[in-house]
Write a structure and sequence with these properties.
By secondary structure, the protein is an all-alpha fold. It contains five helices and no strands. 6% of the residues are buried.
């Protein structure tokens, strides 16, 4: 919900918040949004920092972590790559092709 829908510069969440602010009525998509556990928010923010126009590779994550001085643990790498796979699966499903889930 943090990412912009195709053809938009604003995230879906930002658009829904704008509707809520203007109408005073909370859209169901906004009300039903699951909360990210506070302990894992940093992982999501790291993924937002490192993501690009293609699926993430271990090499990209390694170089990003070196440049930013973030010492990633193996489970954090796995989680970031999982977020990226989910993102690309959703993006590619819109066009009728599923992304490779390797």
């Amino acid at each position: 919900m943090q990412l912009p829908p195709k053809g938009s510069k604003k995230s879906l969440k930002a658009q829904l918040l704008q509707v809520y602010k203007a109408t005073g009525k909370k859209p169901k998509e906004l009300a039903e949004q699951p909360k990210c556990p506070e302990e894992l928010e940093y992982i999501f923010h790291w993924w937002l920092e490192v993501r690009s126009s293609e699926t993430l590779t271990f090499t990209e994550l390694y170089h990003w972590s070196e440049l930013t001085k973030k010492n990633l643990r193996a489970w954090e790498v796995d989680l970031i790559r999982s977020l990226d796979r989910i993102y690309w699966n959703i993006i590619n499903d819109d066009s009728g092709t599923a992304a490779n889930s390797s």
